Amino acid sequence: MAKKTVIVQNALASNIVSMADALEKDTTRILADLVRAKSLSRREKDVIGVIVREMERIGFDEIMVDGLGSVVGRIGNGESKIAFDAHIDTVDSGDPAQWSTNPFEPVIKDKKIWGRGTVDQKGGMASMLSAADIIKKMGLAKNKTIYFTGTVMEEDCDGLCWDYLINEQGLKPDLVVLTEPTDLNIYRGQRGRMEIRVGVKGKSSHGAMPGLGDNAVYKASRIALKIEDLNNELADDPFLGKGTVVVSEFKSSSPSLCAVPDMAWLHLDRRLTKGETREIALKQILTAAEQSGYKDDVEISIPRYKEQAYTGLEYPTEKYFPSWVLEEDSPWLLKARAAYELALGKKPKVGRWTFSTNGVSIAGRHDIPCLGLGPGQESLSHSPNEACPIEHLVKSSAFYAALTAVL
Questions:
Q1: What is the topology classification, in CATH, of domain 3-190+323-406?
Q2: Known catalytic residue: 269?
Q3: Of 403, 28, 405, nearest in space to 186 by CA
Q4: pTM for the full predicted model
Q5: For 357-406, what is each residue's pLDDT tens digit?
């Protein structure tokens, strides 16, 4: 690399980092405002209002709220299209007694900001907005179109929001940067997941004469044990890890509590590694039922998500969410590594998410390249006393702006 180019890049990086540092109080304030706007899935209207207000303050070129209620802000109008995404819904607080602070009243202490969503993943949204401020002020969107999406319903149904953006709004960026928590590492993939429902038929009889019936609970239990054994046989991948399956719910029905159950249902959480598909996973469950001797007594299906967004819109989808990986030699990843070194002054660690993200739709269903970096530790997601280091917010902002500059 020519000496002049290095000097220019170093000066650019220094300016980006200085601006991110200068915006620290603003970024922290934005996150505090986002936390105060409680936003459980399908109830995100208030927090969308906060984001729109900040986008207007920064001077976005266009702000749009789609039919599901996600907000999309645009800066620039160039040929190259990049999107930064943060889902802005959260899970609920759980038992308040397990929190040392009010989960929906942000607290700043120990160089962290505490509250529900600070990690998963309103911290990413706050950093995105400050990155947008830097991009706008430094003119980094030249020849590019940069989208910033605050997406809804991810905790309920990951990827649904992006299915809508892609299918109904025609939003198809060249690259999407996910801002889910990565502890400031770069992530490039995740296992997929799907939900499977197994209905098992029996025959009722009086509980005093069980021999006259066919107990659906016993049959479902034997199938469940075969499903447990599947974990020893599922595919493994050196990067994404092993596929898994767990019975996450067991229900039954009968005419009364003095009767043999005539129906039972298993609900399965299936995590899919690279190469595992819905067809493979369903066939494995059918085989487990066949090995138990009950192939003809089961009905296996994939549930559908069908809930109203806060806008009133329903956008049903099958609960199958494919795995995805950005290959290690991807030019996008090489650029991300370069931006990381510019913004953070060191080489990045590259890994994967343990949980699921909107990437299941963006990359898994629609083949749009994804990578991610976000503030906070993934392990604190959904936990009491969720807290994000303020330093992470600042460095994430610098990375997003630097990535925009080098792409």
A1: Aminopeptidase (3.40.630)
A2: no
A3: 403
A4: 0.95
A5: 999 999 999 999 999 999 999 999 999 999 999 999 999 999 999 999 99
